[in-house]
Amino acid sequence: MTEPNLSRCSPRLALAGACAVLLMSAWPRAASAQGQGPTPVIVEPVRFEEIQERRRVTGELRPVQRARIAAEEPGRVIALEVREGQRVKRGDLIAKLEATRLELELKRVQAQRLVAQAEVEESKASEQQAQVDLDSLRSLQERSATRPKELSDADSALAVAKARRAASEAQLGVLSAEEALFRDRLEDMEIRAPFDGTILTKNTELGQWVSEGDPVAELLSDESIEAWLAVPQQYISAVQEPGVQIPILIEATRQEYTAENLRVIPLVDSSARNFALVANLSADGAPLLAGMSLAAHVPTGTKGKHLTIHPDAILRSEIGAYCWVARGGGDGAPAQAMPATLEVLFTQGGRVAVRSPALKEGDLVVIEGNERLFPMTPVAPTREPAVTAGGGDGESDRATSEDNGSQTPEKRKADDR
Q1: What residues contact residue 210 under an 8 Å CB cut-off, 6+ apart?
Q2: Tell me, what DSSP letter sits at residue 389?
Q3: What is the mean pLDDT of residues 100-114?
Q4: Residue partners of 338: CB distance under 8 A and separation at least 6
């Protein structure tokens, strides 16, 4: 049977002996637990298997929409309806500018349009009269009762009347367009939210003069958000394989997601040689804030042999990740719980790949009942499947998270659940 190669262990694992001493000293009640009888626990063997390797990458949350809302017209701010952190809906009023001059201009154009309308009606009447006069002269011409010049003058008068009507209608159209423009400009004096979101900053105050294009407020969409991951360039082929799913952990809230339908930004950062991998996340549930850090495990496209354990076996203390191993037993003597320090590598298929000089294939690690164990606690191991809430990669992401070192191991395990 091939054993894991421990020559590549990190310097931290090289100090596993010292860590074990620290673990032993972290539970002063260990001796008192000896006389309480074996503690029932559920165990699962450590496996040494070939799996697709994954690499931990980091990233951040970014909003899908973020806009600096600017004034389209100059004016003095006479109403400011929002403050930082206020939630707004699309179309809600953000600010209102003084519009007295535009209102007066609108009234002037409306009056001119009424005059133009009257001129159009007058030109229509003139055209109709010119047409009647021309028709009468043509009737008289058939009886040779008119002179040719009179007929020609009447025909010219009709053409002039038609031209005047066309000019008056065109002038009316210009004034109607000006009126519509002023109405639109008046609407722009009320600055409204272009989408649902939260006011991030205010850029003006009540009574302040703003020019055309000056920002009034910055709006941040909080209904949908994106996870941006910085992935090394050599993994581009692996993350673009069909059906790739990447577990994502929001480090601040401990929320777990499985990212699908990933998008690759086709640009490599020249300094870090990373490209951006983007996934949409739903903001339902615990709040997701733009700028929050996240961690994920992306496939590398290669396979390797690793020790793997159940995610529920992993706990954390001030010195890092560890698990409990049931050792010894037989001839009537119970097995004892012993701590083993770990280096968590990645998650794959509901298992956690780890590196540890204290573990080997076949070791029985405690996956249930490990919250209150102490070094050398007598245990009664049972190899039964554990029922894990959430299951799969979601549970395993807890093993890769960083916990607050001030918590006890029992409290950390309970909080994770």
Answers
A1: 71, 74, 75, 76, 77, 97, 204, 216
A2: S
A3: 94
A4: 324, 325, 327, 375, 376
Using alpha carbons, select from 287, 279, 244, 247 the residue that is nearest to residue 401: 247
- Confirm if 169 and 107 have CB atoms less than 8 A apart: no
Beta bridge partners of residue 317, listed in sequence order = 320
- Tell me: the pLDDT tens digits for 130-166? 888 888 888 887 777 678 888 788 889 889 999 999 9
Q: Which residues, in sequence order, are bridge partners of residue 5? A: none
| 285 to 199, 253, 255, 281: CA distances (angstroms) | 21, 10, 9, 11
User: Are the C-beta atoms of residues 118 and 164 closer than 8 Å to each other?
Assistant: no
- Give the integer Cα–Cα distance in Å for 346 and 344: 6
3-state helix, strand, coil in the chain (%, to 5): 30, 35, 30
What is the reported pLDDT for 286?
Answer: 67
Residue 183 makes CB contacts below 8 A (sequence gap 6+) with 106
Q: Where are the beta strands (DSSP E) in 47-141?
A: 47-63, 66-70, 75-80, 87-88, 93-97
Cα–Cα separations (whole angstroms), residue 65 to 198, 212, 220, 230, 244: 11, 23, 6, 20, 26
Among 98-102, 203-207, 247-251, 262-266, the least confident range: 247-251
**What was the pLDDT predicted at 410?**
43
Confidence of residue 67 (pLDDT cuts 50, 70, 90): very high
Tokens of 135: 């028709």
In terms of pTM, does the model score above 0.70?
no
Q: Using pLDDT thresholds of 50, 70 and 90, give the confidence band for residue 403.
A: very low
**What letters, b where the CB count within 10 A reaches 16 and e where it falls short, cover 11-49?**
eebeebeebbebbeebbeebeebeeeebbebbbbebbbe
User: What burial class does residue 355 get, using C-beta atoms within 10 Å of its C-beta: 0-12 exposed, 13-18 middle, 19+ buried?
Assistant: buried
